[in-house]
Design brief:
CATH architecture of the largest domain: Alpha-Beta Complex
Radius of gyration: 22 Å
Distance between the termini: 38 Å
Largest sheet: 7 strands, mixed
CATH class of the largest domain: Alpha Beta
Number of domains: 2
Strand content: 15-25%
Strand order of the largest sheet: 9-8-17-18-19-16-20
Number of strands: 21
């Protein structure tokens, strides 16, 4: 079960007056609603199809254990003056506390060797430079490329929210810097800066944070992740559901509501513009502005009325991101007894990250392309008192939709024996990957549970179980979806409006609010 955040849908809510409706309560939708509430005192109604708010920041409990489903660590939370922390605090009213992960926030395992990514630029360089002494200059060139890309992004994102009368030539100029970096793949930039194939694989080892291996991913995606974690990583005290729990009162303080078990069927259109939403029960909720945090595929493919769909761009060459398999493991022991800490582990068989990805995509029985290991109970200092004597782990790998699409017309918990058999095989493979990295866990496993892309489809509404919305390919940044959709009054929020992951979705929500309010909202927040 999940912690319930929000109020169960009641059709009588439609009698209220709202300045905006937000479809979806992921961090992007909550950020859009909270920003509209705090910046302009807007009464915002947030509608969530799941039974709790938070999207992929919610947590769930089973058999006395608790796991996060989408947030595993967040960068740039240590200094309250940093822009990312200030925006998080703005959206949550400053009610979320953050616990630091160890200085080694990510450990990359390749072919039996371990390489530490250490917090702080100089320590990052020193750690990897000691392992690859002939690549010290290459590492500096690599970080220079990362910094140049991130600097270019500071102009790109505000340009995306510009009103149409301003977004023409000026917007193109402001976007052009990041687009130059985004057109290159991660593999191309690594090949230009690093000679050693092993070091290139180590540096690309975080690719699971955006979902595509180096030859397929845009360097803009990779650079964003590297820069985000270069100063270290943090985890929300009390678990990731604390984010939604803190954002809801911010929205309600301005007269808004966050409703759950509230499925939106269509965007309601009057006089050629979005004028609210029609619910699955037929109720119409009216508001002059609608923001969708449901993702581009759902928004353009099913939420807008059929007569409007032809006006929405098809985004050729930008597929959905891959899905994922997540094994949730409960351990009957403490983190200390098991030797667990908050360091994440990325485990790969060898340096050919792209080849491993391709082989697994073609054949689900091929070796796993890589496994990400996270230990949420060790990251959260409140967990020991809330759930004493218990620890948790998660093992995650990529899961192409084609491996699971044969069951797309089945129902949750009614998918058949062959589906359950496939799940059991994949759960066993992921558990073995975890135990190979952490042998002290053998004999202490108390509970295991596997989610598949069909789980993401059922709970989050992602049509192909995609983990990161639109794929992080180069065209996502040069020909991606508009914040202002072709239907007047309808705006896009969340990770398809911004970037992948929790922080990218957060800023995607703030950008949607900026487009609605016609202001540079991020700058306004940072100025206080």
């Amino acid at each position: 079960m999940a912690r319930t955040i929000g109020t169960r849908w009641d059709a009588s809510v439609a009698r209220g007056r709202f300045d905006a409706v937000v479809v979806g309560s992921g961090i992007g939708g909550l950020a859009a609603a909270a920003t509209l509430a705090r910046r302009a005192a807007k009464r915002v109604l947030v509608l969530e199809r799941h039974s709790t708010a938070g999207g992929l920041t919610h947590t769930f409990e089973r058999a006395g254990y608790e796991w996060d489903v989408g947030l595993h660590y967040v960068g740039q939370m240590g200094d309250p003056a940093r822009p990312t922390r200030r925006v998080f605090d703005f959206v949550t009213g400053g009610a979320v506390s953050w616990a630091p992960l160890p200085d080694v926030y990510d450990r990359i395992h390749i072919g039996g060797e371990a390489f530490d990514l250490v917090a702080g630029k100089e320590r990052f360089l020193a750690s990897l430079g000691a392992r690859f002494p002939s690549e010290r200059r290459g590492l500096e060139r690599y970080l220079q490329a990362v910094r140049a890309c991130v600097r270019a992004a500071t102009a790109y994102w505000p340009a995306r929210a510009m009103p149409p009368w301003l977004a023409g030539t000026l917007g193109a100029v402001l976007r052009s810097g990041l687009e130059r970096h985004a057109r290159r793949t991660t593999a191309q930039v690594l090949a230009d800066t690093i000679r050693d194939p092993l070091l290139r694989a180590v540096l690309a080892g975080q690719y699971g944070d955006y979902g595509l291996p180096p030859a397929r991913s845009s360097f803009a995606a990779h650079a964003a992740v590297v820069a985000h974690y270069l100063g270290g990583a943090w985890y929300p005290v009390g678990g990731s559901s604390r984010i939604a729990a803190a954002a809801v009162p911010v929205i309600e303080a301005a007269g808004g509501r966050v409703m759950v078990s509230a499925e939106v069927e269509r965007i309601h259109v009057e006089a050629g513009r979005a004028a609210g939403v029609r619910m699955a029960d037929g109720t119409i909720v009216r508001a002059p502005v609608v923001a969708s945090d449901a993702g581009w595929a759902i928004t353009a493919g099913s939420l807008v009325p059929e007569e409007w769909r032809a006006a929405f761009p098809k985004l050729e060459g930008i597929p959905p991101s891959p899905g994922h398999l997540a094994l949730y493991v409960g351990l009957r022991a403490t983190d200390a007894e098991l030797g667990l800490d908050g360091t994440n582990v990325w485990s790969y068989r060898d340096v050919d990250l792209d080849g491993a990805f391709d082989r697994f995509e073609a054949d689900p029985d091929a070796p796993l392309p890589g496994v990400y290991l996270s230990f949420p109970s060790a990251k959260d200092p409140s967990r020991a008192s809330r759930m004493p004597g218990r620890a948790t782990a998660e093992a995650i790998t990529v899961a192409p939709w084609a491996h699971w699409s044969r069951w797309e017309d089945t129902r949750w918990r009614r998918r058949g024996d062959d589906y359950e058999a496939r799940k059991a095989r994949m759960a066993e493979r992921l558990l073995e990957a975890l135990l190979a990295e952490r042998p002290r866990l053998r004999g202490r496993v108390d509970h295991v549970e596997l989610s598949t892309p069909l789980s993401s489809r059922h709970f989050a509404g992602h049509p192909r179980g995609e983990a990161y919305g639109l794929a992080a390919v180069p065209r996502r940044f040069t020909h991606g979806p508009p914040l202002r959709t072709p239907l007047p009054g309808l705006f896009l929020a969340g990770q398809d409006a911004g970037m992948f992951g929790v922080t990218g979705s957060l800023f995607g929500g703030v950008l949607a609010a900026a487009a609605i309010l016609r202001e540079d909202t991020v700058t306004a927040i940072l100025k206080g």
